[in-house]
Amino acid sequence: MVASAGALDAAVALLDGGTGPVAVDTERASGYRYWQRAYLVQLRRDGAGTVLVDPIGLDDLSELADVLNPLEWVLHAASQDLPCLGELGLRPTAVFDTELAARLAGFERVGLAPLVEELLGYHLQKGHGAADWSRRPLPADWLTYAALDVELLLPLRAAIAAELDTQGKSAWAAEEFEAVRSAAPAVPRAEAWRRTSGMHRIHQARQLAAVRELWQTRDHMARQRDIAPGRILPDTAIIDAVLSEPPDEATLLSRPVFSGRSQRRHVKTWLAALQTARGLPANELPSLRAQGESPPPVNRWPDRDPTAAVRLTAARATLIEIAEQHRLPLQNLLAPDLVRRLCWEPPEPLDAAGVERHLVAGGARRWQCELTACPLAAALSSPTE
User: Fold this and answer.
1) For 192-284, which CATH class?
2) Which of left, alpha, beta for 127 (phi over 0: left; psi -120 to 50: alpha)?
């Protein structure tokens, strides 16, 4: 465990003396903290062993970055870990993602434990992935669990890389890894409050406004206190409060969740949010449909644009055939949203070149375009019911 400057110096020297790529993982505190920062960084390199770095107790990781950043990093589900590692100044030159590689290789179960068991014959001890990793000190059994996540990543990489090479997919994987490594930071979702669980029960604009006010109030509190929003007020409580329309504090306190000690302390805040929504003029109420350029839900296509619905059916049938031929998950052959956008508003002219331009603009990789552009153009040009 590395939690001091002196221990970090020793760990940096140890890792620098190792050989080959480095296995990397992080532990966050999702469900406990608002910010998705890394509370533990696990590293393993041949010739160096395993190092667990506590970034909370360290002010400067630049020397560690100098050693790690030029190396290939081996991660499992890299897109989950790279953002919080980047906040620490740790950014790889190259990535090998064992989960993504396993998907491309056609494995049915791509979790770390199933892959390790199937390919390496080991059964990983699990059990603390959903723990509050922001607590200190970290229990010894948690540290053991964390170390196991990088213990076998390097031999797992070798096994999956061999399978990719056998299937002729190594170049595909390299494109996918680079796309993950170089991905831009996620853009905050517009109207994120619309993703509140239970929104299917909300049917009026003023109710939507109430959800929005409660969600934004909760989000502000969560940011300030660095607490996961759901631990401040669950989504179920937001929906219940909106639907029950409590006229006063006593009524709101009688609702589930709001009778708890924490909610009693903030009851005036929650009621004020509801009252703000009730007092909004009609022109400030949110629309019933989310704003944006995305196509409508697929189940509405037959009514909104029957021709687009037929195109989507034809495209899906074509992509399923290609995916089965190459032992690929359908969602890894092409992103579903990209396919929907293509079918809803196809390019003009609708030929292979036009389809490829659309796919590239939507982030598709070269190998994906080579497999799908021509077949999709044919399917969309003459779709059948």
Assistant:
1) mainly alpha
2) left
Strand partners, 94: 72
Partnered with residue 26 across adjacent β-strands are 41
Residues 350-385 pLDDT 10s = 999 999 999 999 999 999 999 999 999 999 998 665
pTM of the model: 0.91
Contacts of 165 (CB under 8 A, 6+ apart): none
Chain segment 205-221, per-residue pLDDT in tens: 999 999 999 999 999 99
Contacts for 168 with CB less than 8 Å, ≥ 6 apart: none
5-181: CATH architecture: 2-Layer Sandwich (3.30)
CATH H-level superfamily of 298-381: HRDC domain (1.10.150.80)
Decide whether 192-284 matches 298-381 in CATH topology. yes
Q: What is the dihedral of CA 305, 356, 347, 100, to 10 degrees?
A: 30
Q: Which two tokens stand for residue 134?
A: 């922001």
